[in-house]
Amino acid sequence: MNLGYKKFRFEEIKYLDSVKRKLLTKLQKLVGTKTVNFNNYHKFIHNEKKHEKIQWDLAKYFRDKMLHMECLKGIENFLFRNFGQDILVQRKPFLRISRPFKLNDNIGLHKDTIYGQSPYEMSIHIPLTNLGKKSCLMFAGKSYLLKEKKIKFKNQKNLISKGSKQHKLGKPYNNKEIEENIYKEKPVPIKYGEFVFFTPALVHGQVLNKDENNTRFSFDLRVSSKFYPVKFDEKSHNGAYVLYSESPIEKLAKEFLNKQ
Ligand SMILES: [Fe+2]
What we know:
Bound molecules: fe (ii) ion
Shape: globular
Helix content: 25-40%
CATH topology: Jelly Rolls
Largest sheet: 7 strands, antiparallel
Strand content: 15-25%
């Protein structure tokens, strides 16, 4: 992990397969045809309002069904090894849809610690299809070692308003997009069934999906330990966590203390 990110493979793919199946069925219902899939989605929807509605409805379905909790079962041992068994997971993770050559579908290069995420809240990026070097996310190895005050940002207007649908879909309202080609970001192609585990202090993201044939459908979620030094209670909606698992020791201790 000394680059600040690493690719891993699902231990049990059946959980992710099930999540993918449910999302695809929902997407086909929303678009109104069974010929649509994650890769070719951009060929079906050309109206921006319609796209926004589909993304909103699909993201809501994903969150309401807590599909991320289901898919994490497929990497449970990985989570236990890294966090112990007292694990917290973001309540409302982000479902991302990045269509080919749509600048607005991406938030560009960024560092989530600049947006207030603690370095103890790790991120997991999970794609729903294979992503080649033109459609995958970029990661700048070791960029978590940079002094944040010295990071160079792009000059741009802020178009996202706080609390808007776009904000709730994962776009920051006070956009701090990082300049490209300074911090040696590299594309990290990834196959379905793999995930990237990374520190939120890393420069990462996508500026533009340059693969004309493939839309990127992926989701990312924050995972932490109940005992990490994060003020979990003070987080606003996107930072709110739910308990994914609890260790037997924590359970016993709590039961004992409740009786005293
Ligand atoms: Fe991010």
